[in-house]
Design a protein that fits this description.
By secondary structure, the chain is α+β, with helices and mostly antiparallel strands. It is built from 17 helices and 16 strands.
Length: 523
């Protein structure tokens, strides 16, 4: 027992004390490499400190395109790495193939390994390296002239899974619970947002559902929703992380000519399981959120300011809402509202190369889904039609531009896709606000499809006098929010709420890096 305790202490000290890392390099193994072999109650707390869910993301190390130019980098296991590309025609095809050579050396231990992803616009593959020597990745034949020219001019992209084999598995273990509809999953989402965004989750006094008087809700009032468990909770968590929004979904209130209260929502799931734009009675929407939505939604009502409400053209708002009923959720422009800059919107280790790699992988797995998510939108930015992702990437290079520049081209509100105008949950509301006159007189110079959820709730459209909030608003809560949280155990905070007046070309060039998500004036 004493030997086991001594060994365990040695292992813990080696991992946790930075000053002893050099000593650890002299071992035939690295302590991190054997942590998973220890009892779970010992190993996992340490692994959780060393790795997180974001470690599952690959890091772009460069592209190899020539036998005369070496690409060099430091890996997670092997600290000295060198790669080069040799073209050949072993297949006897018109454009031949190529062999990627990778020489790895200077491993930090005998038991580590490096994992890599290799990609062109036309293919994705992977490999791992355990031995210090020269390795090869053979591509028998290129997918025609386009891939041959692309690799010859721009290289085969190399991505490192920086956490190594065990770290990647541990990161997967942290990602997995985000999607589970359990208390474990809910806590995992909360922990992720606290760790990577600096979000706080103060517990509200019970009851966690407000006894609402709908007479106090008016047309144009905004509903901010934050889901924290299950599939949608996980997707929202990742969306919040990259965009800086503290809510992940939105809806809007409307009253008809008879005074009946309705809710408009992009992202309502119909009976066929499709996410569509819908307008439904308040009672139906509220009953679903209370009794059927298993993602534990936290909901806040953001009333419009009286002066803004007076400008809200209810007739125009209804005309827009009715014109959009039944149209699919705005997947086409969803990701483009987030990406405004070349480097200022990607939380490390994300970058445009990783985005292109993920798109390439997804295009091969789900080509129809990929076409809906980004192909049409990329074609809009190029002024082309019908190009798939590889063709888009080749076309961008032909024009002397780059994929990261293409992603930053602002979405235009008047673009019409194959299935009609595209509106995400927030674009649907802001398009309605635009039609209702809230962006006048600068409406023509504002593209609301460029707004994230955060960009929407920081607009100074909302009530700024707490004495005018409904009496039931935050009733019983010791912390008086400047809006009305109507559901949820945890306090739904919205940093920057109601502070930003609209301006021309708003949110077309804004960075969004965690954890501060700072934005310059006028971006």
């Amino acid at each position: 027992m004493a030997k086991k305790v001594a060994w365990l202490l040695l292992l813990l000290i080696s991992v946790c004390v930075p000053g002893l890392q050099a000593w650890a390099l002299k071992l035939p193994f690295h302590p991190r490499d054997v942590l998973p072999l220890l009892p779970r109650q010992v190993s996992w707390p340490i692994l959780n400190r060393l790795h997180s869910a974001v470690d599952i993301l690959p890091v772009f190390v460069g592209a190899a395109s020539s036998p005369d130019e070496f690409l060099e980098w430091k890996g997670a296991c092997f600290y000295k790495n060198k790669a080069w590309m040799v073209f050949h025609n072993k297949s006897g095809t018109q454009f031949g193939g190529g062999t990627l050579h990778i020489k790895v050396s200077n491993a930090h231990s005998w038991t580590c390994m490096d994992l890599y992803i290799f990609a062109t616009p036309y293919r994705v593959t992977w490999d791992y390296y355990f031995l210090a020597r020269e390795h090869t990745l053979d591509i028998k034949a290129w997918e025609g002239k386009a891939e041959y020219e692309y690799v010859k001019n721009h290289g085969l992209s190399i991505f490192l899974l920086q956490a190594g084999m065990l770290g990647t598995l541990e990161a997967l273990w942290e990602v997995f619970p985000l999607f589970t509809n359990t208390g474990w999953g809910e806590n995992s989402n909360i922990n992720f947002l606290e760790k990577h965004m600096g979000a706080s989750f103060g517990v509200r006094p019970q009851p966690w559902v407000t006894n609402i008087s709908t007479d106090d809700i008016h047309s144009g009032d905004f509903l901010a929703v934050s889901k924290i468990r299950g599939r949608w909770g996980a997707f929202e968590t990742l969306e919040k992380w990259v965009s800086g929004a503290y809510a992940g979904h939105t809806a809007v209130c409307l009253r008809d000519s008879n005074g009946k209260l309705w809710v408009g929502e992009s992202g309502h799931e119909n009976e066929a399981g499709e996410d569509i734009i819908a307008v439904m009675p308040w009672e139906e929407w509220w009953n679903f959120e209370l009794n059927k939505d298993d993602s534990n939604p936290h909901i806040a009502l953001l009333p419009l300011h009286p002066d803004v409400r007076a400008r809200f053209n209810e007739t125009a708002a209804w005309e827009y809402a009715v014109s959009m009923i039944g149209k699919p959720y705005g997947y086409h422009n969803m990701i483009f509202s987030w990406i405004d800059t070349l480097t200022g919107n990607y939380p490390p280790p994300l970058d445009a190369n990783v985005v292109a790699c993920v798109m390439t992988i997804w295009s091969q797995i789900q080509p129809d889904y990929a076409a809906n998510m980004w192909n049409e939108a990329l074609n809009k930015r190029l002024g082309t039609k019908g190009l798939d992702l590889p063709e888009v990437l080749v076309e961008v290079e032909k024009r002397g531009s780059s994929f990261d520049e293409l992603l930053t081209i602002p979405e235009q509100d008047d673009w019409v896709y194959s299935d009609g105008k595209s509106a995400s949950c927030i674009a649907f509301i802001l398009e309605m606000y635009k039609e209702a006159g809230l962006f006048d007189p600068i409406a023509s110079s504002v593209q609301v499809t460029e707004f994230t959820i955060k960009d929407a709730y920081i607009l100074n459209f909302f009530e700024n006098n707490s004495s005018r909030l409904p009496k039931w608003c935050n009733d019983g809560d010791t912390v008086k929010l400047p809006y009305c949280q109507i559901k949820g155990k945890y306090r739904l905070e919205l940093p920057g709420y109601n502070t930003m007046p609209p301006y021309s070309h708003m949110n077309e060039r804004c960075p969004s890096l965690p954890p501060k998500y700072s934005r310059p004036n006028g971006c």
